Amino acid sequence: MKKVFIETYGCQMNVYDTEIVRSVLGKSGFDFTESESEADIVLLNTCSVRENANNKVYSRIHNILNGRKGDGVKIGILGCMATNFRKQLLENPKLPIDFIAGPDSYKRLPQLIDEISGNGVTNGAAPKNFDVTLSEFETYSDVYPAQDGGVNAWLAVMRGCDNFCTFCVVPYTRGRERSRSPENVVDEVKRLAGQGFRQITLLGQNVNSYRYEGHDFADLLEQVSTVEGIERIRFTSPHPKDFPRRLLQVIAENPKVCKQIHLPLQAGNDRVLEMMNRTYTRKEFLDLVDEIRTLYPAMVLSTDIIVGFPTETEAEFEETVQVMETVEFDSAYIFKYSERPQTIAQRKFPDDVPEEEKTRRIVKLNEIQKRHSYHKNLAHVGEIHAVLLEQESTKKSPDDYLGRNDGNKIVIVPKGSYRKGDFVRVQISDATPHVLRGTVVG
Ligand code: SAH
Ligand code: SF4
Ligand code: F3S
């Protein structure tokens, strides 16, 4: 039996896809190993969203082959770099890889591997094998990802993105939006509930633009919430443009849907937002936050922000600061703009904000966010939260349990005699910008 080692980079969709790949290869008789040095086949499931993600993969390929030259190990590149860097990967004679497969081609993997194994090709000697065709239909609705028994199960309900934000490579690497039928999703949720999962996180590059024959994302949430055994439903990653009133009401009112919304702002200035093709203005974004907080004042809000987008001035950057100060997000992922090949921004706009300036801006926003996260977390001290215990022991302490509250914040509690998957009521006694601590009260 051939042994496969897989390493995953990038977002949760890639982590999920790795499980799809394991499921497909497992059915075709492949075995898996946790040790790259004993693998016959090494697969890197790659990300292309920012430049450093790419660089990591290139250095990893060389690192894996160090000391293994000529021993026949096959290296395959999967994921978003496979589609976006197809030409470079295939035509660079110095890059010792054997095959590449894009995010819609994983059912063909056994065949791709079979073909290179048969022809004795090794470590990049031409011809390399590839399939990076993007499909309008592939949703892997008939492949059950190989998820280990746990507390939270991921489930991709839609794939691809049609938004074409000008900075973003995802519409090119993952192709057009397509959704699975609600029946198919509910069937899988039932199966996962039967395996003991208590929380489901619905996934999609643009999850709230889910649409299947007249059913929208609000319908899907409602249908999933009827499945017995599932007690919490989360979703990621949404786009601010797809939050109709009814969806906000379902999130606010359905007891199983967690009170947490990721709302990627990207920038706080209208000219920059328009250049980004985000399709909302600063005012529309702030109005959406108001609408959410009117429906559910304690909704936990997180965001993504890019600093140093082409031509962003200091005054425009300050508008992002103002939106952060107005909203006070619970948490934020803040990135420096990174020019990506093929994107509209790369073709039309100069990457003209100097690196030191990007650094200054990101440091400033991270400081603001740290203050806000701490302030928001401190406000929870004294409250009682329902916490789902997810992980026995934390890195820092073997005597603690790590769980999450409804708002997706990490809550640490002393171990006691609880088990993974238990729901407990925790009185919050302490907070840092990143975690809450407390004791179980029932
Ligand atoms: N589909 C999701 C996530 C996309 S990638 C969404 O729309 O929210 C996650 C985040 O990476 C984005 O929200 C954006 O903030 C950041 N990002 C994407 N492309 C980038 C680029 N070229 N440079 C810097 N950050 C980028
Ligand atoms: Fe990229 Fe925009 Fe699509 Fe998100 S919505 S994946 S940022 S193009
Ligand atoms: Fe990266 Fe592709 Fe996800 S570019 S962030 S792995 S969709």
Keywords:
442 residues, alpha/beta, Rossmann fold, pyruvate-formate lyase- activating enzyme, OB fold (Dihydrolipoamide Acetyltransferase, E2P), 3 domains, six-stranded parallel beta sheet, 21 strands, 34% helix, globular, binds S-adenosyl-L-homocysteine, binds iron/sulfur cluster, binds FE3-S4 cluster
CATH superfamily of the largest domain: tm_1862 like domain
User: What is the helix tally?
Assistant: 14
CATH class of the largest domain: Alpha Beta
Strand order of the largest sheet: 2-1-3-4-5-6
Distance between the termini: 49 Å
Summed up, the domain count is 3
Q: Give the class from helix and strand content and strand pairing.
A: alpha/beta
State the low-pLDDT regions, or none. Answer: none
Basic shape = globular
Ions, cofactors, ligands: which are bound? S-adenosyl-L-homocysteine, iron/sulfur cluster, FE3-S4 cluster
User: Looking at CATH, which topology of the largest domain would you report?
Assistant: pyruvate-formate lyase- activating enzyme
Radius of gyration: 23 Å
How many DSSP-defined strands?
21
Instruction: Report the sheet-strand fraction.
Output: 15-25%
CATH-scheme architecture of the largest domain: Alpha-Beta Horseshoe
- Helix coverage percent: 25-40%
